[in-house]
Amino acid sequence: MYDSNDSNIVTKGPANHKKSVILTFDDGPSRVLPDILDILKSENVPAMFFWQSRLLFPKRPWKRVLDEGHIIGTHTVKHPNLVRLTYEKQYQELSNSVTKIEDVTGQPIKYFRPPFGQYNADTLKAAEQLQLTPVLWRVAAIDWELKEEPEQIITNVTDYLEDGAVILLHELRQTLDVLPDLIKTIKAEGYGFTQL
Ligand SMILES: [Zn+2]
C-alpha cells in the first residue's frame, strides 16, 4: 500500500456513486498489449496506460487504445530514476516523451507516472510546467516479481481494495494471464472501474 500525504500527487480517483478502482498499466506499449486490450474490451473495463515513449513503435495499437476509451499517460522516454537527474534533464525526459506520444497519437497527454515511483521537487516542478498531473498508486500488484506465481498478483490487489484506489500493474505476460480472473474478482467484491 502506497501511503502518501503529498498533495501534489494522485493515488486515488474521484468519489463515485458506485465504489470503483482504477487499473493502470506501466512500461508499455509491449507485445502483450493487444491481448490486454481484448480482455479489457470483453470485460468492459476502462484503464490507463503509462508508456515509455521509446517503446511507441508505429505498429503498436495506440489508436485502438484510444478508440476503446483508455487513457494514455507518459512514463518518460526511457525510464530513468528521475531523482538522480538535474531539473533540466528531468524536464527533457518529460517534455520529449510527451512530444513523441502526442505526435504519434494526436491526443494531449495529461497524466504522468514517475519511473519507480521516484520523484522530487524538481519532478513536480517540471510536471507542473508541462501541465502534467503526477499519478502514483494506492495498491501495487508487484506483478513484475511474480512471473512464477501469477496468482499472487490477484491476492496482492484484492487484499487491499478500497474505493478510488489506483492500482499499479504492468504490461507483462504474467499480468495478462491473470487479468481476466483479477477483473472478475474485483467485480465480485462489488467494485466497478473508472479513470482519472
Ligand atoms: Zn515503470
List the SSEs and their pairings.
Elements: E1 20-28, H1 33-42, E2 47-51, H2 62-67, E3 71-74, H3 87-105, E4 111-112, H4 121-129, E5 133-134, E6 139-140, H5 151-158, E7 166-170, H6 173-188, E8 192-193
Parallel strand pairs: 1-2, 1-7, 1-8, 2-3, 4-5, 6-7
Helix pairs in contact: 3-4, 5-6
This protein binds zinc ion.
Residues 26-27, 75, 79, 115 line the site of zinc ion.
What does this 3D model show about the protein?
With 196 residues, the chain is an alpha/beta fold. The chain has one domain (20-193): TIM Barrel (Alpha-Beta Barrel). 35% of the residues lie in helices and 16% in strands. The chain is built from six helices and eight strands. The protein has helices at residues 33-42, 62-67, 87-105, 121-129, 151-158, 173-188, and strands at 20-28, 47-51, 71-74, 111-112, 133-134, 139-140, 166-170, 192-193. The strands form two sheets. Strands 1, 2, 3, 6, 7 and 8 form a six-stranded parallel sheet that branches. It has a two-stranded parallel sheet with strand order 4-5. It is globular. It starts with 19 loop residues before the first strand and ends with a strand. The model has no long low-confidence stretch (mean pLDDT 95). It binds zinc ion. Zinc ion binds at residues 26-27, 75, 79, 115.
